[in-house]
Amino acid sequence: MSDQPLTPKERMAIGRTTMPEQDPAKRATNFEEVNFGLSYEAAVQEAKRCLVCKSRSCVEGCPVAVRIPEFLEALASGDVAGAAEILRVDNALPATTGRVCPQEVQCEKVCVRGKKGDPVAIGWLERFVADWAAENMANPVAPDKQTGRTVAVVGSGPAGLTAAGELARMGHSVTVFEALHDSGGVLRYGIPEFRLPKKIVDAEVACLESLGVKLEFNVIVGRTITVTQITEEFDACFIANGAGLPMFLNVPGEQLKGVYSSNEYLTRVNLMGAYKPESTTPIARGDNVVVFGGGNTAMDSVRTAKRLGAKRAIIAYRRSREEMPARIEEVHHAEEEGIEFMLLMSPLEINGGEDGWVKSIRLQKMELGEPDASGRRRPVPIEGSEFELEAQVAVVAIGTRANPILSSACPDLKLNKWGNIEIDDNQMTSIPGVFAGGDIVRGGATVILAMGDGKHAANAIDRYLQSK
Ligand SMILES: Cc1cc2nc3c(=O)[nH]c(=O)nc-3n(C[C@H](O)[C@H](O)[C@H](O)COP(=O)(O)OP(=O)(O)OC[C@H]3O[C@@H](n4cnc5c(N)ncnc54)[C@H](O)[C@@H]3O)c2cc1C
Question: Domain check: are 361 and 349 in the same one?
Answer without folding.
Answer: yes
